[in-house]
Amino acid sequence: MERRKFIQQSTVFTASFFIAKDLLAKNDGPIYGHNGMKYRMDNKWGKLDPQNHPVNNCHEMVQDSKGRIIMLTDETKNNILIYDTAGKLLDFWGHDFPGGHGLTLVNENGTEFLFITDIVKHQVYKTTLDGRILMTIDVPVETGVYKDAKEFVPTETIVDTNGDIFIADGYGAQYITHYDRNGKLLNYFGGRGDGDEHFDNAHGIVIDRRQKRPSLLVTDRTRHCFKRFGLDGKLQDIIVLPGACVCRPVIKDQHLYAAVLMSIDMQHPGTGFTTILDKHNKVVSNIGGTEPVYKSGVLQPMSQAEKIFVHPHDVCVDSDDNLYVAQWASGKVYPYKFTRV
User: Fold this and answer.
1) Minimal CA–CA distance to 155: which of 317, 299, 314?
2) What DSSP letter does each residue of 114-168 carry, written as one string?
3) How many Å is the Cα radius of gyration of the chain?
4) How high is the pLDDT of residue 1?
5) CB–CB of 190/241 below 8 Å?
6) pTM score
7) Which pLDDT does position 28 carry in this prediction?
């Protein structure tokens, strides 16, 4: 009886030790960021068996109403990987998006859908959360500016509350196309060019509702800025981010988050970080980047400070303000989690 009691106690102690050790490890990662916007990194969070659930480029991530983290990769063995916030794989699907790039979550009267852009197939798809395709948007030849489907390389979408769809052609002719909920073209603006109203790399787009009047924030990545337009396509202002080749803008409450694919310029691979702006569009924190400095109200050039990313491509902000960062061309790494501290 004494031996049995000893074994039971030892088993409990051993189990408690390993549980405590695991919790300590999760709480012992390095901390990054500035000005009260600091995060503890877990670069093992989304790691899976690459034989069963491989990734190529991890492009974008969203969180649905169930709290699940949905990630898009251009690996056709499983284009969509669905995690819980602890990093456990819950589901996976998708074999038809060799150029899966943009991922947007839309809630229509309590039902959620995904919008996926494919830069190889030159199309945009509306799908159910389990992958059933409901609508496909092709090259907008009715604009008169596209002569061939290959000129249309959509990188991102955003959907308004009335169902209107805005598509950013970030790798193609650089137009923003505006459709109604049924896919009928309503307007287009931008296009490649040197003027402020034009783009060189309209990589991402979001509707900004932090002000009284909603507006569109559009990335111009190679020009290190976000450009603000009215929903009618008229330019309003430019948010300049020196040294930051920003990807899509992501808004959660009053903050704006963005992955910075490269710093300095697009000729410096492997120099990415993640940036956070406040409600006044002032940079307050950089994860893996230099501390933001303003001189006479002007933001000074930013760059990578710590080599924790290679090419971060998107940021997902969960309901607890934790971050998940997906990376492009970074050795097929799975997403990292950054827990707010």
Assistant:
1) 314
2) EEEEETTTTEEEEEETT--EEEEE---GGGSS-SSGGG----EEEE-TTS-EEEE
3) 21
4) 40
5) no
6) 0.92
7) 79
Reduce the DSSP state of residue 288 to 3 states and report it: coil
Q: Which fold has domain 31-340?
A: Neuraminidase (2.120.10)
**Residue showing tokens 């509707």:** 207
**Structure confidence at residue 298 (pLDDT):** 98
The H-or-E segment that residue 40 falls in is strand 37-42
> In whole angstroms, what is the distance from residue 198 CA to residue 136 CA?
26
The CB density around residue 25, as the number of other CB atoms within 10 Å, is 11
Q: Which stretches of the chain score pLDDT less than 70?
A: 1-27
Q: Count of residues for the chain?
A: 341
HSE-CB at 132 with a 13 A cutoff on CA atoms is: 3
Residue 245 · residue 203 · CB < 8 Å: no
How far is 337 from 87, CA to CA, in rounded Å?
A: 9
Enumerate the β-bridge partners of residue 33. Answer: 38
Structure tokens at 330: 């970074």
CA atoms within 13 A on the CB side of 273: 26
pLDDT digits (tens, 9 = 90+) for 214-250: 999 999 999 999 999 999 999 999 999 999 999 999 9
Q: Alpha carbon 184 to chain centroid distance?
A: 27
Structure-token match 């190529």, residue found: 56
Could you identify the residue written with the tokens 């507006």? 215
Find where tokens 């402020």 sit: 196
Residue 287 β-bridge partners? 274
CA distance 108 to 217: 22
> Would you state the pLDDT for residue 168?
98
Rounded CA separation 308/288 (Å) = 6
Report the run of H or E that residue 22 belongs to, with start and end.
helix 2-26
Map out the domains of the chain as residue ranges.
31-340
Residue type, 272: G
